[in-house]
Amino acid sequence: MVDFNDPDFVNDPYEALKTLRLQGAPVWHEEMQMFLAARHSDANDVFRNKSLGRIFKDKTPEFEWETFNWLHSDSILDSEPPKHTRLRALVAKAFNRNKIEGMRPAVERITQQLLDAIDGKVKSGENFDLIADYAEPLPVKIIADLLGFPESDEHLLRPWSQSIVKMYEVNPSQQYQIEAKKAAGEFAEYVRDLAEHRKTNPGQDLITDLAMVEENGEKLNSHELVATCVLLLNAGHEASVNAFGNGMVAALERPDQCALLRENPRGITETALEEFMRFDAPLHLFERTATVDTELGEVKIAKGQKIAALIGAANRDETVFENPDSMDLTRDPNPHIGFGAGIHFCLGAPLARLEMGVSLPALWEKYPTMQLASTPVRRPTFVLRGYESVEISI
Ligand code: HEM
Predict the structure, then answer these.
(1) Do the beta carbons of residue 261 and residue 255 sit within 8 Å?
(2) Does pTM surpass 0.90?
(3) Which of the residues 51, 303, 308, 387 could staple to 294 if both were Cys, CB 3.0 to 4.6 A apart?
(4) Residue of 340, 353, 218 whose CA lies nearest to 286
(5) Under DSSP, is residue 128 helix (H, G, I), strand (E, B) or coil?
(6) Which pLDDT does position 219 carry in this prediction?
(7) Tell me, what's the pLDDT at 170?
(8) CA of 373 to the centre of ligand 1 (A)
(9) Which of 136, 214, 224, 238 is catalytic?
(10) 292 in helix, strand or coil?
């Protein structure tokens, strides 16, 4: 059975995921105590089946994990209707396609600033880091701007978020647990203070809007306010950084795909982004719990049992995608499930697509000859799959 913590598996999980997928129906993983859905149709059903819920189980001891627990149980992602419907409705308007399209000038401006800074390095003969210099700052700056998180404190976001999301890996270490508790406490306190401040000093941002809703005492309590802001700040950049980084590295390793990007970056951007998402998924595993006895992909799931959707495995399903193990930046249609499905379908998908849609062609137009300068360094995690650093030379 697949070992999610084996460094060889983390380095390249796709052969093992294929073996799992070719077994057919979801299989029971004894150590994880859950079914694994690797086929496209099964993983898709895990997201859509109404008898399966996202049920956050509090971590214990409660006094140590208190803030971490409510940051999750009171967030959009970890709640179910009717609470989920209420929380999602409060922020959905801010993320609809028209609102997001209105952010295009800001995304273009920040992309340009980052390219100018990279150009400084390139002109003095230095290489640059695709992650730290480009893939990471763009989504961090945009989500901070949208929420109204002060620019001077933006550097705090990534470390807090990274410490919290490491808890989503399979069997997180003691060290990860200590860091997650600390980050949850600091992040929650910071956002709480910021929201309080915005009640008397309103800005034109989402934290102000949500703080006003809480103030009116109607649809949002104080934990939900903080949990929603923290979720948006984290979800708003973690996967975007890795979707861009994973896709770029895979393309840079393939001369035929590089040629496509070099010759006509703007022309293939739309399909290229979707293939970035499919080919080397930035998020691999999402769990659900059966709320009643149910059946999925020929297996019976008893009430209380868990099943996980394996996105990266589903996105390589040979019954859905032609040549699934080949990257094809012109692939169309591309029904990957990188943004999930059903009621928790990614709220930020239009924003992620806008960011990558602006930053990808801008980078290739500026540096058509760019290449990997050294072996990219992977993060040692499976669920959130990405690179630590990717050195590029021109
Ligand atoms: C390439 C980048 C991204 C990927 C691959 C991605 C992927 C996903 C996936 C798979 C889910 C569903 C999780 C589940 O059903 O259990 C999700 C939910 C969510 N995403 Fe994203 N996401 C990305 C970018 C963003 C951005 C930019 C935001 C901006 C705020 C965002 C906000 C959210 C939120 C709030 C949810 C929870 C929605 C709900 O529970 O109703 N995501 N995302």
Answers:
(1) no
(2) yes
(3) 51
(4) 340
(5) strand
(6) 85
(7) 86
(8) 32
(9) 238
(10) coil
Q: Which of 224, 275, 287, 355 is catalytic?
A: 355
Angle at 246 between CA 245 and CA 249, to 5 degrees: 80
Q: Is the CB of 247 under 6 A from ligand 1?
A: no
301-318 pLDDT, tens digit per residue, is 999 999 999 999 999 999
Active-site annotation holds for 161: no
Token pair 């700056």 is at which residue?
Answer: 141
Are the C-beta atoms of residues 215 and 63 closer than 8 Å to each other?
A: no
Residues 6 or more apart from 111 whose CB is under 8 A from it?
Answer: 138, 358, 359, 362
> Is 235 tagged catalytic?
yes
Tokens encoding 356: 């990558």
Banded pLDDT at 387 (limits 50, 70, 90): very high
Residue 290 falls in the annotated catalytic set: no
The one-letter amino acid code at 289 reads T
Pairing type for strands 391-393 and 377-378 reads unpaired
Task: Give the distance (Å) from ligand 1 centre to CA of residue 238.
Answer: 10
Domain coordinates in residue numbering, the chain: 7-393
Residue 307: beta bridge partners? 35, 288
Question: CATH classification of 7-393 is 1.10.3470.10, yes or no?
Answer: no
Ligand 1 atom with the shortest distance to the CA of 282: 5
Per-residue three-class SS string for 174-210 = HHHHHHHHHHHHHHHHHHHHHHHHHHHCCCCCHHHHH
Active site residue 238: yes
Q: Out of 75, 79, 163, 240, pick the active-site residue.
A: 240
Contact indicator for 121, 127 with CB cutoff of 8 Å: yes
Q: Is 283 in the pocket of ligand 1 (CB under 6 A)?
A: yes
Segment 206-261, tens digit of pLDDT: 999 999 988 887 789 999 999 999 999 999 899 999 999 999 999 999 999 999 99
Residue 338, token pair as written in the block: 């990188």
Say how many C-beta atoms besides its own lie within 10 A of residue 374's C-beta.
Answer: 11
